[in-house]
Design brief:
Elements lengths: L3 E5 L1 H9 L3 E5 L3 H6 E2 L4 E2 L8 H4 L7 E5 L4 H10 L6 E5 L2 H7 L5 E2 L2
Parallel strand pairs: 1-6, 2-4, 2-5, 5-6
Antiparallel strand pairs: 3-7
Length: 110
Amino acid sequence: MSATIISISSEEALTYLQQNEAILIDVRGEDDFNELHIANAIHCPLHCITSIEEQLASYQDKKWLFFCHSGVRSLQAISFIADQIEGTLYQVEGGILVWQEKKLPLLISS
């Protein structure tokens, strides 16, 4: 068993999310997530990623998009679980830095 890994742009990720074709797994730390995140993102810090499969079992019909600050941790997260998952895992290129740069929708803590 081994997943295929595909990198996608922020715009592609947003389209999947808006069409309800995907879930977003944000692997940033708690403080970063609480300060700023994408609506409906599932927060799973990198250190908890090996337990994510059970948490996401009800989302087997969706694309799993992994997201972080700049793209490094999301690739790490995927590499930790890729051997345990069948199908395709998606890494959102550039993380929240690119998402913000492109002025895509975010939830910001006040």
